[in-house]
What we know:
- By secondary structure, the chain is α/β, with parallel strands linked by helices.
- It has two domains: 68-294, Metal-dependent hydrolases (TIM Barrel); 360-547, no CATH class.
- The protein is built from 16 helices and 28 strands.
- Strands 1, 2, 3, 4, 5, 14, 15, 16 and 17 form a nine-stranded mixed β-sheet that branches. Strands 19-18-21-20-23-22-24-25 form an eight-stranded mixed β-sheet, sandwiched between helices. A five-stranded parallel β-sheet has the order 6-7-8-9-10.
- The longest helix is centred in the last third of the chain and has 19 residues, at 492-510.
- The protein starts with a helix and ends with a strand.
Amino acid sequence: MLKNIINAAYGREKADIVLKNGKIIDVTGHSIIKGNVGIKDGVIIGIGDYEGLEEIDVKGAYVAPGLVDSHIHIESAMVSPGEYAKAVMPKGVTSIIADPHEIANVCGEKGLEFMFKSGEGVPLDIYYMLPSCVPATPFDHGGAVIDGDKTKELMKKYGFKGLGEMMNYPGVVNCDDDVIKKLESSKYIDGHAPMIEGMGLNAYICGGISNDHECDSKENALEKISKGMNIFIREGTGAKNLEELIGAVDPYNLRHFAFCTDDKHLSEILREGTISHCIDKAIGLGMDPIDAYTIACYNPCVFYDLHRRGAIAPGFKADIIVTRDINCTDISLVLKDGKPVAKEGKALFEAEKTDIRDVTDTVRIQNITAEDLSKEFNKNEPVIELSNSLVTNAVYCENSNGLSLCANIERYGRTGNKGLCFVKGLDIVNGAIAQTIGHDSHNISVIGSDSENMAAAVNALGKKGGIAVVQDKKVIAYMELAIGGLMSDKNAASVVKEHEEIIGAAKKISHEGSNMALMILGFISLLVIPHIKLGDKGLFDVDKFSYI
Length: 548
C-alpha cells in the first residue's frame, strides 16, 4: 500500500481519484493554489499534474480539508450517532471529538457501549472522550456513577481518545482524591472553566487540562491562551460565542483556536451546518478565509494528535470537501478516506439500527400529582432570572406576578427528590413543558404556569421519556426519546418534524419564549454554569458551590 502511494505521488502509476481544476485552500502555507489533487488508497498524494482512474472536474470550486468539530455532545441533536453522521457529513464534517457525557449520566457504561456501537459502520470519524463528571457534581443525583477507579478501567477497556470536559472545578483546585485519579488517567483532558481566572485558573490548568469551550469574553479567552490553553470557539444552539470571541484571534495566537458546537439541535444542523456555519459566520465578521479554515480543519487535528490530517498535503488523509463558495455554504462533494460520502447535500451511506434495549425505559417514577409540585411564593427566597445565555442570576421579587414555576424531579427511582423554584423572564400561560433532557443528570425538568399543568406534562413522559407540552391540562404535543430519554430511535426527518411540532405547541403557551423555554429546561439544572440553578434538592448557588 505504501509503495502504491509513493509510486502514484511520483507519477509512476495512476491515482485512484483526481480532483481537477480546483482552487485548493492550503492551510499550512496560507494560500490558495490552483491545480489538481491526486488521491491514492485514501491518501492525498499531492497537488500536481496527476492522472486518475477517476477524474472529477470541480470547475474552479474550492477544495478544502474535511471539517472537524472539536467538542460535541451528539445527544443534543436527539438522534443516534449513525443518524448524526448522516446529518453532518453532507455539511463537510469528517471528524468529531464527541463527549457522550449525557447518555453516560443516564445509563453509565451501557450508554457508552451504545454510542460506540451506533457509530460503527458510518464513515464519520468519531473520537470519543470518556466523560469525566458522572455525575457532573457531588450534588447531582443521576442514573450512574463513574468514579476515579472506574475511569481508569474504562479508559483501558475502550478506545477513548481522552478524558471529557472536567466540569468539577472545585474538585480539581482542591485536589479531591477521586478527581485526581481521573486526571491521571489520560494525557488529553478537555476543560470546562466558565469565568475562571487568576490563580484559580492556574491551578485548574495544572491538572493537565488543555482547552476550554466556555469562554464568553475576549479577555477571558486571551488570558487562557496566555496560560497555554487552546480555545474552542463555540457556536451551538443555546450558547453562541463566536461573535464575541472572534476579535481575540490574531496571527500570533491563531494556532490556539478551533471551532466547536458543543450542543446543537438537528433542525439547525440540517439548515446551516455545524463547523461550516462557523466558517461562514467568521468570514462574514471579517476573518481571513484561510484562517477560518485553519481553525476549522487543521488546528483541532494538531490539538488531538490526529495524525496527518486537516490539510491538503502529500501523505495526509484524503478527507476533503469541495465547496462552490469560500464561505463553505455550498458544498457539492465530501470525500472521506478518498471515497465520496456525500454529494449535493445528501449522504451516500445509510446508518444501521442499533439495539436500544439496554438504554431505554429509563424513567422510573410514580405518578406525579399537582400537590407534589405545589409551592408557595416567598419574597425572601431568590428567583432564577433568565438571560440570553446559559448564565442565570438570582433576583428577589415582591410577588409571583409574571413568574413561572419550575421543578427538577429525580427520575431514576432512587431518591424521589423534587426541587422547586420560581423563574423570571418566561411567562407561560395555562400550560407546561416537561422533558427528560436536563443537563447533566437528565432528571425531569418541567416549567409551567401552575402545578396542575406541570403534573400533566410530567406524567405524559411515560417510561421512555422525551418532551411533552400541555395546555389546559391536556397534552398537545409529545416527542418520544426512547434512547435514554435523550435521543430518538427514528430517522433525522422524523425527529425534525416532531421537534418542530413541540416548538409550535410551546409557542401556544409561551408565545415568543418557546425556544428559550426549551433551552432553559435543558440547562436550568446544570449546576456548573453560573450563577444560580435548580437541582433535584432545590436552588443551587454555583458561585458558592452549595445548595441554598
